[in-house]
């Protein structure tokens, strides 16, 4: 089973924009859901792109299940993110002007994609997520973020995402020269809070 490329758009038309924000929804969510969040972000002059997962799920099992259990969905999901990036680049938007915002399963997918394709991007916000696999396979991650700002926000505890994986993810991103800001909220629950939106705005969407 694989995903079908289905990109929902909002904001400035892609061929008129200088910046793009790629938004990746969580399990059970939708492209439209995550696009609606953009009204709280300082992205008035951005093209907004949100790929839609087949059956609202990027991969079937937990992100810390053995990777092979989540195949072929995971590889297909990573390809969907890549195709969304390519659509922005094809429209003339430079990678350093491409930004990412992912929540939960979408945050995990965003982080996994970025670490496998590290270069100077505009920035990324990943709310409640970490790199994918029962063990992190460092061999999968290549490139240099060249100072790309990355914001990681999470709750401790979180039912789906262990705090240890968030810290391990932050460490690898730093090794790859990302400028990482992490914020842990005690017992906040599995959702996005107002301060995380404010931090995303101040760190990424200045």
Task: Using brief descriptors, characterize the structure shown.
alpha/beta, Rossmann fold, 7-stranded mixed β-sheet, 7 strands, hydrolase, LYPA1-2/EST-like, PLipase/COase/thioEstase, plasmid, hydrolase activity
Q: How would you characterize the overall build of this protein?
A:
- It is a single chain.
- The longest helix has 18 residues, at 73-90.
- This protein is an alpha/beta fold and 206 residues long.
- The protein is globular, with a radius of gyration of 15 Å.
- Helix 2 (73-90) packs across helix 3.
- Strands 1-3-2-4-5-6-7 form a 7-stranded mixed β-sheet, sandwiched between helices.
- The protein has a single domain, classed as Rossmann fold (3-Layer(aba) Sandwich), CATH 3.40.50.
- The chain has 5 helices and 7 strands, in the order E-E-H-E-H-E-H-E-E-H-E-H.
- Belongs to the AB hydrolase superfamily. AB hydrolase 2 family.
In terms of topology, how is this protein built?
Blueprint: E1 7-11, E2 19-24, H1 31-36, E3 46-51, H2 73-90, E4 98-103, H3 105-116, E5 123-127, E6 149-156, H4 163-175, E7 179-186, H5 194-203
Parallel strand pairs: 2-3, 2-4, 4-5, 5-6, 6-7
Antiparallel strand pairs: 1-3
Pfam family, one: Abhydrolase_2
Keywords: Hydrolase, Plasmid
Protein name: Phospholipase
